[in-house]
Structures are given as C-alpha cells and as structure tokens.
Amino acid sequence: VVDIRKFYADTGMFTYDPGFTSTASCESALTYIDGDEGVLLHRGYPIGQLAEQSSFMEVAYLLLNGELPNQGELDGFTSTITRHTMLHEQLATFYRGFRRDAHPMAVMCGVVGALSAFYHDSTDITDPQQRMIASHRLIAKMPTIAAMAYKYSVGQPFLYPDNKLSYTGNFLRMTFGVPAEEYEVNPIVERAMDRIFILHADHEQNASTSTVRLAGSSGANPFACIAAGIACLWGPAHGGANEAALNMLREIGTPDRIPEYIARAKDKNDPFRLMGFGHRVYKNYDPRATVMQKTVREVFDSLKVSDPVFETALRLEEIALNDPYFVEKKLFPNVDFYSGIILSAIGFPTTMFTALFALARTVGWIAQWNEMITDPAQKIGRPRQLYTGPTQRDYVPVGER
Ligand code: ACO
Known about the structure:
The chain is mainly alpha-helical and about 400 residues long. It contains 18 helices and 3 strands. It has a 3-stranded antiparallel β-sheet. Strand 1 (about 30-35) and strand 2 form a beta hairpin. About 40% of the residues are buried. The structure holds acetyl coenzyme *A.
C-alpha cells in the first residue's frame, strides 16, 4: 500500500483536477451516493425511506450522531433544539441595517456569520461541548433567521418562535403568521415542508459542504464556516438552481414552447442550460427528484390547488428524457427541478427558495464540520495549482513602462 500523499510530497508530484471531479477530499461516514444507480443513503438509510417515514429532526439526529434516535433520544434532541430557537434580541437591529429589497441569501450570509459575534461561548472548536452547543444553535436558529429574512423583505414584524410547535410548524408560523392572529399549521404543508428539509439535509462533498469543510480546516468558528457554505450555496449552479428552475418554467409558460428551450439548451453557442437538470454525481434519476415529484402531487391534491407550471415541468422532463442530447450526457432532473413548484404552492416567493435549502443543509454542513474536526487525518485544506503566468522578470519603474 502506498501513502499517495507521501509519495506525491517526496516526488514533488500532484494531480490537476479542476472542479475535483475525481479527487476525494476526505473520508466520511455520513452520506453515500451511487450516481450511476441513483442511490442516496444517509448513514446507510435510503433517502426514499427517510423522506417517507421519518422526520427532519430524526434525520438531523441521525446525521449528527450516526444512529436513528429511539423515542426518548428524539424527544430529548427535539427539546434541546427547541430551547435554542430564539435569536439574540440585538440581531433584530442587525436586520434593520439591510435594504428592504435585499435578497434573503444576502441577509442569511450576514446574519449567520454574525452569530459568532453573539455566541462567544460556542466558538472554541477544541471543546467538544462548545462544538455541540454551536451545532444545536445553528440547527435551531436557522428557521428563525430564514423566517426573519422573509418578514423583513415583506415589511412585516418579526414573530418570536412558538416552541409548542414542531420544528417545521414553528418555521411556517414564523414565516406566514402575523402578530395577534392565531396561525394554524396545515399538517399537509407541514409534512411536505419537513420532507423537503429531509431531501436537502446532506449530500456528501458538494460545493457548499466542501466550502464549509475548507473554511473549517483553518480552525475558523462554526458560525463563520456555515456562513461560507451559505455564500457558496447561493450560486445558480448549486442551491440557486431551485429559484432558477421555477423562473425558467414560468418563462417557458406553456408546453408548446418547450422545444424552443430544449433547442437553446443544446446549442453550444447559447449559455442557457435547463435549470434543475444534470448533476455532477448522478448520471441517473436523482432519487430526491422522485420523492419531490410525488410530493407535488400530494400537496396539490390535499390543498386542492394546481399550477400549470407542473404540467410544463412534467412535459419538459418527458421530452428531455427522450432527446438523444440529454440521454447521451445522462442529464436527468435533479432535486431542484420540482422543489420550487411545491414551495411556490405553499406561498414562498422564489427569492426564499435557496434560503430554505440553506436552512435544511445546515444539518449536513454542521455534521460534516464535526466529522472533519474530529478526523485525525484532517489538515488545513490547501489545494495546489498549475502556474500559467509569466516567468520571473525584473521590476520596471512606472515612468519607464
Ligand atoms: N442543460 C443543458 N446541458 C447541460 C446541462 C443542462 N442543465 N447540464 C450539463 N449539460 C451539458 C454540458 O453543456 C456539458 O456538455 P459538453 O460535454 O458537450 O460540454 C455536459 O452536459 C456536462 O456538463 P458539465 O457542466 O461538465 O457537468 P458538471 O458536472 O460540471 O455540472 C451541473 C453539473 C453544474 C449541475 C450542471 O449539470 C448544471 O449546470 N445544471 C443546471 C443547474 C442545476 O440544476 N444545478 C443544481 C445541481 S443539484 C444541487 O446543487 C442541489
């Protein structure tokens, strides 16, 4: 057995792998993906079973602790998370510094980074107790932070958490409730939302998770690391794809316009891509998209609503999956293709979609961060480069250039 790192160091060699398409950055026991078969397992459990049968709190416990909780453990964990849902009161002032039309993701990057200025008793990464409290705080406060970003954008007062409600019910109330009025959580919406959170909880070494790990590898505190993850998630090639996918479907409008967009997606001179299609790892149907498509039907049936955009999405999928371009390149719908349709039916504006993704992914990010911190093989992340600039040359004073 050759220690490849030592071999490379001794010989001065390294690999050139832009986009890390074939380089493992770490060992991890959290999430397994078989992209060819369309399989996603969290700690060994298939995502379909978790989405259908468990709750987001159970999945959060599973990702953090390695095993599904028994009833007592689940109750204890839920109560711990519940105790941490409040934000420091001065953070409300921080929100008021943003422009009213600020994108929620811009607000989330700032507010989550700012948590490190408020919770000094959970920033010592060498203390396991502090790491645990920081993890619980992040999971607990993300719904409050996201809901406040929404309230701020629509000019409504912030609502304090109501900890009698479930994690997801509480988030829905803080988002859509108004003061002095009773907010009744719709159990179908609550279940659908909880399922969406489960489907987004973790996805091994994606761009934002790798960002969290890279930031954390320098010893940065967990709040700063998660803020870095949020910033990376924002991009349209990653978490921003759910917003972009629904915008695209609305722009297409009716199924008769699909061929025009398919043609654009195939045109090498056009930068347009079908949003919500394709994945770095899945070269088969994204198992999360299967659950998501089913959930759209359930939500529409239960709420007795519909949206023509769903028909457009189904037809687009059918046409693309029978088109040689998409077949050859193994481009299938990913998790983001259908999620926006449900979120929109629930009442979220598209600008909130990626913030919801960030809320759910915080569980995976912080579980991965903890795994990294306790991994004895972990070093500061420090990729190398292939230098392509000029060779050494002498400085020329400005007047002689
Ligand atoms: N529409 C049209 N063509 C596509 C698409 C698409 N959505 N995705 C990939 N392709 C084509 C590329 O043009 C490329 O063609 P080429 O080989 O002829 O140059 C080929 O398929 C491979 O694409 P890459 O960009 O090299 O694949 P990569 O693994 O780097 O990118 C990505 C994956 C970013 C997800 C890409 O498929 C994409 O941009 N999809 C749309 C955005 C999206 O839905 N992102 C969400 C991802 S899931 C998530 O973050 C939760």
